[in-house]
Amino acid sequence: MAESNAKMHCMVASDPPWAQMRKGVLEFCVLACMVAGPTYGFEIARKLAKHPQLLSSEGTLYPLLSRLRRQGFVETTWQESAEGPPRRYYHLTPPGRSALTNFSDAWGPFSKAVGHVLQEAM
Amino acid sequence: MPSTPTGPLGARQQRLIDAYLTDLRRCLRDVDPRQAEDIEESIVEHITAAFAHAGTPSVEDVQAVLEELGPVERIVSAADTRTSAVSDSSTVATAPPSGASAGAIALLLLAVLALASSGLWFIGGPLGLVAAVAGLMAARRPGAGRKLYAAAGWVGLCAVTLTVVFAMVLTSATTTVSPDEPAVLTSSTATSIPPTR
User: Fold this and answer.
1) How many CB atoms lie within 10 A of CB B71?
2) pLDDT tens-digit profile of B128-176?
3) B126 to chain A nearest CA, in Å?
């Protein structure tokens, strides 16, 4: 009972309206940040945080990165940093790249369809 | 447990970070321990990276970084409840990590080897013990290959038990040799050995 209450206390009461939409695309935006090459968490967070619709709290990136790693879509390596302790760099694996390509192919027609429907309705 | 960023931080700044990480750990109690550790380490790395160029960050700088990270409840909520579109849309995502299964199979082979060599206590005992402890501990954690790990653990345990039994039989079968008396085996199957001159 006490554990259940603690868990409830740790839950967030409400999310913004676009939270559901974000769940479907954020993973792929994170994968897209690695296309140019390996990058570290802080860099990804700062890039995505420019778009609050995608990432309102930078900390929520890390459970997602952990999951992507467990799923085999990204791998990590430690690299020395001139500015402090070694950093964990994330890079795309072949399955991760393939998933991103599939999403990218589907995203164009999908967003176009939504745009058409909204345009006709409004 | 990851350490908090060490650098040119003032006492108040360090207290703010420590309090944030303490709250995070508290909220991560219900998350899978490996994932919780991963998340905590990543947050520490993020804070360290945020101050890499800042020289000595002020209290306001620290507060700003922690606010941008967001409430710890929101971070933990992302670990607990966010469904992964990647795993829903890709068959690759549902496949268990091959590394975990390979590890479980290797441990099972080790346990079988321990069982096969349980007559040799100095080989079967240590190998069986390693397989039993590692297998049963890994089987308690969620993830791929849990059944294999459990099997390896139990086979390892059997190997240890058999090794102990063999060792006890061998110990009870040791001979007591006296210069004037014939050596007599002390086990129930003992036979008299004529004295040697």
Assistant:
1) 19
2) 888 888 887 777 665 556 777 788 888 888 888 888 887 788 778 765 5
3) 32
**Mean pLDDT for the stretch of residues A50-60:** 92
Residue A44 CB-density burial (10 A; 0-12 exposed, 13-18 middle, 19+ buried): buried
Give the integer Cα–Cα distance in Å for B89 and B92. 9
Q: How far is B28 from chain A (nearest CA, A)?
A: 9
pLDDT for A116 equals 95
- How large is the average pLDDT for residues B67-77? 94
ipTM: 0.82
Q: Could you tell me which residues come within 8 angstroms of residue B138 by beta carbon, excluding any fewer than 6 positions away?
A: B103, B104, B107, B145, B146, B149, B153
**pTM of this prediction?**
0.59
Q: Which long-range contacts (CB under 8 A, 24 or more apart) does B91-97 make?
A: B92/A71, B92/A72, B92/A73, B92/A95, B92/A98, B92/A99, B93/A71, B93/A72, B93/A73, B93/A99, B95/A72, B96/B143, B96/B144, B96/B145, B97/A70, B97/A72, B97/B143, B97/B144
Contact assessment for residue B76 and residue B32, using Cβ atoms and an 8 Å cutoff = no
Classify B67 as helix, strand or coil. Answer: helix
Q: In chain B, positions 49-88, which contact chain A (CB-CB < 8 Å)?
A: 49-50, 52-53, 68-87
